[in-house]
Amino acid sequence: MSRIKILDRSEMTEEQARVYDSAVASGSPLGGPYYAYIRLPSLFEGAQGLREAFAGTPLSRREQQVVNLVVARHFSARYPWFAQVRASLQAGIPEAAIKAINAGETPDLPDAAEAMCYAAAREMLDRKTLSDETYAQALKVLGQDRLIAMTAATGSFAMTCLTANVFDIPAPADDPMPLAS
């Protein structure tokens, strides 16, 4: 059970309702950490805007999904993991790669950029930086702009996962690939 009451539309303030309605109209996410963010409408809007901003970065959808899976697994964040498994499968990430990440194993990602996103995100989360060697390799494989976007995506999705964890936002009961223990 969540630590935070999920507000019904009828319980929202005028400002909460405005940003909620805007998200509904644009087809933006409303669940998971957004259950908490809605209580601070400017944060809700900012999180939605940041999510939209990442769509305009040089990271491919698959690269973004690899990063999100690594971050959700790192934080053992149930709702974000659920949402990212679904999005990753839709983006074409092989189920075997997702299962490997879930098990804490290195996935078989034949695309060099996707493999680099996995390795760099893992190292950033584990070491809170990149070694000189990994940085040089990431720069070579991804280029500066994609490395900047990948770094920002790692940090941004960490916020999402921490929010989901702090407020104990569960994955739906029909989660097809729950987090491994």
The helix content is 55-70%
Mean pLDDT: 94
- CATH topology (level 3) name of the largest domain: AhpD-like
Q: Given the structure, what is the number of helices?
A: 8
User: What CATH architecture of the largest domain would you give?
Assistant: Up-down Bundle
How would the global form be characterised?
globular
Assign the structural class, choosing from mainly alpha, mainly beta, alpha/beta, alpha+beta, or little secondary structure: mainly alpha
Return the string of H and E elements. HHHHHHHH
CATH class of the largest domain: Mainly Alpha
CATH superfamily of the largest domain: AhpD-like
Description:
The protein has helices at 14-26, 34-37, 41-55, 61-74, 78-91, 95-102, 112-127, 132-166. By secondary structure, it is mostly helical. It folds into 2 domains: 9-55, no CATH class; 61-161, AhpD-like. Helix 1 (14-26) runs parallel beside helix 3 (41-55) and helix 7 crosses helix 8 (132-166). 34% of the residues are buried. The mean pLDDT is 94.
List the helices and strands and how they pair.
Elements: H1 14-26, H2 34-37, H3 41-55, H4 61-74, H5 78-91, H6 95-102, H7 112-127, H8 132-166
Helix pairs in contact: 1-3, 4-5, 4-7, 4-8, 7-8
Q: Brief overview, please?
A:
This protein is mostly helical and 181 residues long. It folds into two domains: 9-55, no CATH class; 61-161, Up-down Bundle (AhpD-like), CATH 1.20.1290.10. The chain is built from eight helices and no strands.
